[in-house]
Specification:
heterodimer; A: Serine Threonine Protein Phosphatase 5, Tetratricopeptide repeat; two-stranded antiparallel sheet; 20 helices; 12 strands; globular; B: mainly beta; 22-stranded antiparallel beta barrel; 11 helices
Chain lengths: ~575, ~1000
């Protein structure tokens, strides 16, 4: 009996153990779709991360793939031998943009069938409007990133200029490999359509004041200024020699329209560079949120300012800065003195580049001469390869010395679109469209007006060279392109510009030069120049490759011509 | 050099001793006996093949008399009327003979050799045991006594080189966190079952009775999905009825690194760095005066020339291990207690070093409470205390490796320590004046098992249930003192004199308050219930069946979700005519994350075995002692990681970003999708086929096994990022898919030869495993360059470029196909245009070799009179590796090897201070032979002869010396091949020389 009892107990134990909650699903910490898209507040939370692909810092390293700069730790592969379909400087832009487009499409799919805020329905409706506009604007921006980086002639038929894979809905694995690239113009128009939609939902040109929908606290969300600036930039690219999808006249008009929409029919003086720390800068048409940081200084300050000195401007860029009167240094009329090459230069030179003898940051004199503190084996073993350090975007308020009593952080942000950018876009298109006059019919200002405020900010007070340059289309064009190079230095834009302009491969294969500074016993300096990096550029490299694995995976995505 | 001496430790010490005495030793102290009315028993002890065994210790439990066998294996002993005789000798398994009414059953007593698995011997397999002859899978078994002669406290290290299919991997080598891992047929063990309970205890060979490696589904199947890669089954020691044994061991040893890199001194480094700068187009930075100053040791603050190995890590580490094993018991209750105390120190010669102390306790008690049932209990755990610099052993060695000899002076003056912008770890500060971490880890387990004989209900039926609990917790705290530090910089004054400038000064601060760190707690519970049916219907039909139910919960502060596992399974093993075994298994090992339908699926396994030596046609083959030919095959589901797969999932942690301007801003939360649901996920499966044989030949002189195995893993889950364009840009928008199939094929074998020649007994053993994997389906991009693809090729191949020497001059570069991997200068590697498209780029990647395919081991054990010697080796061969040791030094230290850089020789490309995308990539230039043989351990021991011990209370006494990691033979001599980064980026593996003493009473 006793054994039987034990046996029964055993059975009981077994069965009771079986009927546990083993198969019940334990709720995870994560959310379901219903929870995420329940009401307007939460829907907005879903949209917010779509801003994650907007740069909050300039793309400094892309300039090391151009003739503007080199990196302190060596040559970039794709810059020196040229890119391959599996290794290109901009391959990451593909992922960066598509990742957010997928996210935004999910927002379009689910983000509007939500409950309004019962306490303030009007606000909720206004918010929903704005959010919808933001989603369109952001999607347009990411599509533009794709177009800017990956448009090119089809590998199957080089006469067809391909654009981007247009993805306007939630993509599934069933159709992921079936979406191909639309041609350039269709892509362009598709982006414009998104921008038009954005404009219909966003009533705010610029966020300001304390409004619940359009207050300054929303700065850096998609705004009217951003929509206009993006249209302008797109038009300039589409009309560029590399694409020629619209005429320069159309481009000039589109840009004029943008300026007109933002500022009325006038050119506005620009804010000074300062420490690039003005988060309320009216010239910033669109930027990502700001933060108080010293990341850039830690990476780019020269060694004697306790930084790593990562970005080293090239002699090529240094030579692009005109003299104090705006003359190119090669011009016989310029004040440039090869024995004192850093004197009498455009003020932007001293604001953008640390050179031997710079002494305006933290009372420290930069010494890049051989044996100096900021040369190899000075404070650091590894120092500038070119003899220069980047200064643009860095704050003079930041002192990285551990013992420093002053602050070691400053407000930092990076504007994607700026007023000066818009002016440069306009100048370039207007000159191509309307010739040396640079003024279209019915327009209130010319290319020169736009260029002049930029030169004014640069401190070129008596711009004699402008009068000379604007008489000849080639020197005028050259001047505009050079201004663009300087204004956009260390932002990566030159990488696109030289391709868009289709500069000759001879020009693009110019070696990257650096300076060797020798200090003489009488404390004067000798300057000699040497080749730091070479460049290889093939014809097909005007257009970037689509990341090769994407082409191999997809049955529909066609590679750009020349890339295999 | 005893370490931790605070009160807590003492308290716990005492507590442990009290527990040990209460639990373990008490039963051994009873039964005092008088010497009257004793009976004289005689007998002869032989091994299985009839060889007489001398020097066997024979002890009568009741009378407490003892003796040893003579050279004819004969003994004579006085016992009680009812008594136990325990016979024991090194090399044989201990056995107990019952004395009933003053007599024993047979005059000849047969002892089993350690390395011979007896046909009828019961072998532990998944949730049960089977006689060896009825196991259809490949198992390896080794006894704890055999593992004892490896100088280690880690069971997993002691297994090195001994068993077929098994490889022992060095884990962390720093003494205070030392660890080892085992790999069977290329995959880590799914589970380690200690006394039936899945556990993760640090076990010491001395507490282990035996270890069984259950390689395939003939033995591990019922452990379920988590053990799909094979299981390790450990049985800790149990008391033997009638025995009363106390065994004490003490040993101590010294350890030094097996390998220290040969790095350049400051003057050589400076010269070569100047060369590298020259190659990059820069002026040299070290003047001849500076280089001379390094050589002459002038001004060590300005011109440091530090030999970190000699200055910082030059002390032999030492360790001590003391154990006491207490076992015994009567007919109804038996106990075993293992108590161990281990301390170890590190090799630092500065600071207070790395220290660990570990107390280990393991208690087993079995009690028979009626003729129908018994209970077994296990309680134990360990208490570890570690104190070390926060700069751990691996980081320390990595710093030593990376920092040139002239990187920085340790101290600028008496109070200020140095750092530089590029080299900011001051090792002297890190080891002697910096943060210290101290942690206390406790683990504890409790296990209770009940076995009931239900024969009265149905003949042959029994029931057992086993429950176990395991907890682990780790409390860490740290002290963060700091010292004054600055960057020394020398500058010239106007007069030309050098002045020392201190830059970037930071002030130190003492710290006397320990800060506590996160507390880690893990818990697991395990229950196993098992109905066993054992029935011999007649000699020709014997059935053993097991119905099992197991459940396990694992939770812990580092797990996101509680893990729950449940298996229900049945095994039927049918023995026909005592020659043929047919076994079938069926199980539900549910994976909770899958759909209901998938969860309920059953897994199957089946096996066959044939005892060929019993066949009449082999009856004449006198050389054949035992031959079991066996095969098994099964399909088992594999667990998937802990998420739920069916619904889209989102998380609120995605950064939303901040908006606004200073003084008027808003930051916003974000939601992102983190998983795309997939409704049709199938259970990933593993199919396992093993065909093999176990054999014993020539009177057990030769024993061994050989196996062919084929492991197919199908429908493995992947996020198909390399299959879908566009979507792969955001993996969260890809659903999981069953899209990965691979196969491993191989053979493994072990063969041992045992021989006795006069007084010499020896065993030589060799084992090897050869394994190749094939990929038939995989989440990888398919290239038009076919031999670059993973799918359809072998899984262990090395893909790279074919190097064609080094460019000697610019003309050669211009004549060669365009090399698209960046800057190419004379002194850089030239690659061949493999696909013939005129340029060298990624499309020229192809299979250039394969990784190691063979692991092997040799062992030798010898006994001569009181002396015994054990030598164990293991190794890897049959493949290559890409040697990236000399890649990308940048401004870090140079190995002595780098002196061979071009143009000094063509062995290495030119030195550079910069990145180099051309040279530092996988190619035949860097391919080396991976083969090596590692002498893992040598142990020599001497056991005092019986004649000396005969009339003492000492039953057994031996002294031993041992060494481990003594020698490695390989084609590459600038590293410790068994673990290539140890000594460079990681703490080196230490060798050991120890002496010890073991005494039993």
């Amino acid at each position: 009996m006793k054994k039987l009892a034990i046996f029964c107990l055993g059975i009981l134990f077994l069965t009771s153990a079986c009927s546990d909650d083993f198969l019940e699903v334990v709720p995870s910490n994560n959310n379901t779709s219903d929870e995420v898209f329940r009401d307007i507040t939460r829907a907005q939370r879903f949209l917010n991360p779509a801003y994650g692909g907007v740069r909050s810092q300039p793309w400094i390293s892309l300039d090391t793939y151009t003739d503007n700069a080199v990196s302190y730790d060596g040559a970039k592969r794709a810059a020196v031998s040229g890119a391959t379909a599996e290794s290109s400087a901009v391959a990451g832009e593909w992922t960066r943009a598509i990742q957010r487009i997928l996210h935004i499409n999910e927002f379009f799919d689910k983000g509007f069938n939500v409950v309004y805020d019962a306490f303030d329905e009007d606000l909720a409706i206004a918010l929903k409007q704005r959010i919808r506009g933001e989603a369109f604007g952001l999607r347009a921006y990411y599509k533009w990133i794709l177009l800017k980086n990956f448009a090119g002639p089809s590998a199957q038929d080089p006469n067809i200029m391909l654009g981007i894979p247009v993805i306007d809905r939630l993509l599934t694995i069933e159709d992921a490999n079936r979406v191909g690239r639309s041609n350039y113009l269709d892509s362009y128009n598709n982006i414009l359509k998104d921008l038009d939609s954005a404009e219909t939902y966003i009533n705010t040109l610029r966020y300001a004041g304390d409004g619940d929908v359009d207050g300054a606290q929303f700065t850096s969300r998609v705004s009217g200024e951003m929509i206009w600036a993006l249209r302008a930039r797109m038009a300039l690219f589409a009309a560029s020699p590399a694409y020629v999808q619209i005429t320069m006249d159309q481009a000039a008009q589109a840009i004029y329209e943008a300026i007109n929409a933002i500022d009325g029919a006038s050119i506005v003086p620009l804010q000074s560079f300062g420490d690039f720390n003005d988060v309320s800068n009216p010239d910033h048409l669109w930027r990502k949120g700001y933060s108080e940081t010293n990341n850039l200084e830690v990476a780019h300050f020269p060694p004697s300012l306790f930084g790593r000195g990562e970005c080293n401007p090239s002699q090529n860029l240094v030579d692009a800065f005109p003299d104090i009167y705006g003359f190119p240094i090669a011009n016989p009329l310029s004040q440039y003195d090869p024995n004192n090459p850093y004197e009498n230069r455009d003020l932007r030179f001293d604001r953008f580049v640390f050179h031997n003898g710079s002494d305006d940051f933290n009372n420290t004199t930069i010494e890049t001469f051989v044996g100096g503190k900021d040369a190899h084996g000075g404070i650091r073993k590894q120092a500038s390869r070119s003899g220069y350090y980047m200064k643009k975007f860095l704050s003079s308020k930041i002192n990285l010395d551990t013992e420093a009593t002053s602050g070691n952080r400053d407000f930092k942000m990076y504007p994607i679109f700026t007023r000066e950018g818009l002016y440069l876009d306009f100048a370039e298109a207007a000159v191509e469209a309307y010739g040396v006059a640079g003024q279209g019919p019915g327009m209130a200002f010319s290319a020169r007006d736009a260029l002049q405020v930029i030169r004014d900010r640069a401190g070129i007070v008596q711009d004699d060279y402008m009068d000379i340059a604007v008489t000849n289309i080639d020197t005028y064009r050259e001047l505009i392109r050079n201004e663009r190079r300087i204004e956009y230095a260390f932002e990566g834009e030159r990488y696109y510009d030289v391709r868009r302009w289709q500069l000759s491969s001879t020009e693009l294969e110019q070696p990257i030069m650096g300076v060797k500074v020798l200090k003489n016993s009488d404390d004067s300096f000798d300057y000699s120049y040497w080749e730091i990096e070479s460049r290889n550029f093939e014809q097909y490299m005007y257009y970037n490759p689509i990341p090769r694995t994407e082409v191999l995976k997809s049955q529909a995505i066609v590679q750009n011509f020349g890339w295999e | 050099m005893l370490i931790i001496k605070d009160l807590t430790m003492k308290k716990i010490n005492i507590a442990y001793l009290v527990i040990a005495i209460l639990l373990g030793m008490h039963p051994g102290l009873v039964n005092a006996q008088s010497d009257t009315n004793l009976k004289t028993i005689t007998g002869t002890i032989t091994d299985k093949t009839g060889n007489k065994i001398a020097n066997v210790a024979v002890k009568a439990s009741g009378s407490e008399h003892r003796t040893f066998t003579d050279k004819d294996g004969f003994f004579e002993i006085n016992t009680e009327n009812d008594d136990f005789i325990i016979v024991s000798r090194e090399g044989f398994e201990k056995s107990v003979i019952t004395v009933k009414d003053g007599a024993i059953a047979a005059g000849i007593i047969i002892m089993d050799r350690w390395d011979v698995m007896n046909a009828q011997e019961k072998i532990q397999i998944a949730h049960g045991e089977l006689p060896f002859e009825r196991v259809t899978g490949s198992i390896e078994r080794i006894t704890g006594e055999e593992l004892k002669d490896y100088p280690t406290v880690f069971l997993q290290e002691a297994l090195a080189g001994r068993l077929s299919g098994l490889y022992a991997v060095y884990g962390d080598a720093s003494p205070e966190v030392e660890s080892f891992g085992n790999v069977v047929r290329g995959s880590s063990f799914g589970e380690i079952y200690v006394d039936g309970v899945p556990s993760n205890l640090v076990l010491n060979p001395r507490e282990v009775d035996d270890v069984i490696i259950a390689k395939d589904y003939g033995s591990s199947f019922l452990y379920g999905g988590t053990a799909a890669g094979g299981a390790m089954i450990v049985n800790t020691k149990r008391g033997i009825p009638g025995e009363r044994l106390m065994r004490f061991m003490v040993r101590g040893g010294l350890r030094t690194p097996t390998f220290i890199p040969d790095m350049m001194n400051a003057q050589d480094y400076a010269r070569h760095y100047n060369t590298a700068l020259g190659n990059d187009g820069f002026a040299p930075i070290y003047s001849q005066e500076t280089i001379d100053a390094y050589t002459n040791g002038t001004d060590s603050i300005r011109n440091p020339n530090n030999d970190y190995y000699r200055q910082l890590v030059d002390d032999p580490a030492n360790y001590k291990h003391i154990t006491g094993d207490f076992s015994g018991g009567g007919e109804k209750v038996q106990y075993f207690t293992h108590l161990g105390y281990y301390t170890a120190t590190g090799i630092e010669s500065v600071g207070s070093g790395r220290n660990i102390a570990r107390l280990r306790l393991n208690n087993n008690v079995q009690m028979k409470f009626s003729e129908y049932g018994s209970i077994n209990l296990g309680i134990g755990g360990s208490f570890n205390r570690r104190k070390a610099p926060l700069l751990n052993g691996n980081s320390m060695f990595n710093t030593i490796y990376e920092y040139p000899a002239n990187a920085l002076p340790y101290q600028i003056n008496d109070t200020i320590y140095a750092r530089t912008p590029e080299f900011n770890t001051n090792l002297l500060v890190g080891l002697a004046h910096g943060s210290v971490i101290e942690d206390t880890r406790r683990d504890a387990f409790a296990r209770i098992g009940l076995d009931l004989d239900l024969g009265s209900i149905t003949q042959g039926l029994s029931f057992s249930v086993l429950g176990g609990l395991y907890t682990y917790n780790n409390l860490s705290r740290r002290l963060d003192p700091s010292v004054d530090m600055a960057e020394p910089f020398f500058t010239q004054t106007a007069s030309g004199a050098d002045t020392l400038v201190l830059r970037n000064i930071s002030r130190g601060a003492p710290d006397n308050v320990w800060g506590t760190l996160g507390d880690r707690v893990d818990r697991s519970q395990f229950v196993n219930a098992n109905f066993k049916y054992r029935r011999n219907f007649n000699d020709n039909h014997q059935v053993m069946a097991d119905l099992i139910y197991t459940q396990r919960r694992v939770s812990g502060s580092q797990l996101n979700q509680e893990e729950r596992l449940r298996n229900i399974g049945l095994r039927v093993n049918y023995f026909i005519n005592k020659k043929y075994v047919v076994e079938g298994n069926v199980m539900n090992s549910a994976v909770r994350q899958l759909s209901k339908e998938e969860r309920n699926k059953l897994s199957y396994a089946g096996g066959l075995a044939w005892l060929a030596h019993k066949e009449s046609f082999l009856a004449d083959a006198s050389w054949l002692t035992f031959l079991k030919v066996r095969a098994n095959y099964g399909i088992l589901g594999e667990p998937v990681s802990s998420f739920f797969l069916t619904d889209d999932q989102y998380t609120g942690s995605g950064a939303g970003g901040s908006f606004g301007i200073v003084g008027n801003n808003s930051s916003a939360g974000g939601h992102i999708r983190i998983l795309t649901g997939s409704g049709n996920i199938k259970l990933p499966r593993r199919q396992y086929l093993n065909v093999g044989a176990d054999f014993r030949l020539f009177d057990n002189k030769i024993t061994g096994q050989i196996n062919y195995f084929n492991i197919r893993r199908t429908d493995q889950l992947v996020l198909p990022g390399n299959l879908y364009a566009l979507l792969s840009s955001n993996a969260s928008y890809l659903p999981f898919m069953n899209y990965s199939d691979s196969e491993q094929r191989g053979i493994d074998t072990r063969i041992s030869y045992h021989r006795t020649i006069g007084n010499i007994e020896f065993t030589v053993s060799a084992n090897a495993t050869r394994r190749v994997s094939y990929i038939s389906k995989d989440n990888s991009v398919v290239y038009p360059e076919a031999d670059r693809n993973r799918i359809g090729n072998k899984g262990d191949r090395i893909v790279g470029l074919e190097a064609d020497g080094i460019f000697q001059n610019q003309a050669e570069i211009e004549a060669a196909p365009l090399q698209m991997f960046g800057e190419v200068k004379p002194g850089d590697i030239r690659y061949r245009d493999h696909n013939g498209d005129g340029v060298v780029d990624e499309k020229d990647y192809h299979e250039i070799g394969h990784f190691a395919r063979i692991i092997y081991g040799f062992s030798y054990r010898m006994r001569y009179k009181g002396w015994s010697l054990g030598i164990y080796t293991d190794g890897i061969t049959g493949g290559s590796f890409i040697d990236s040791r000399q890649w990308r030094p940048g401004m870090q230290d140079y190995t002595a090897e780098m002196a061979k850089s071009w143009p000094a020789s063509n062995d290495l490309p030119r030195l550079t201070t910069l990145n180099n995308d051309n040279n530092y990539r996988s190619s035949t230039f860097w391919m080396r032979n991976v083969g090596f043989l590692n002498l893992r351990s040598v142990t020599l021991s001497y056991t005092l002869p019986p004649s000396i011990l005969q009339n003492t209370v000492v039953r057994d006494a031996s002294v031993f010396i041992a060494g481990k990691n003594l020698l490695t033979v390989s084609s590459v001599d600038d590293r410790f091949m068994p673990s290539q980064s140890k000594g460079y980026e990681q703490h080196p593996v230490l060798n050991a020389f120890e002496v010890g003493l073991e005494v039993s009473f």
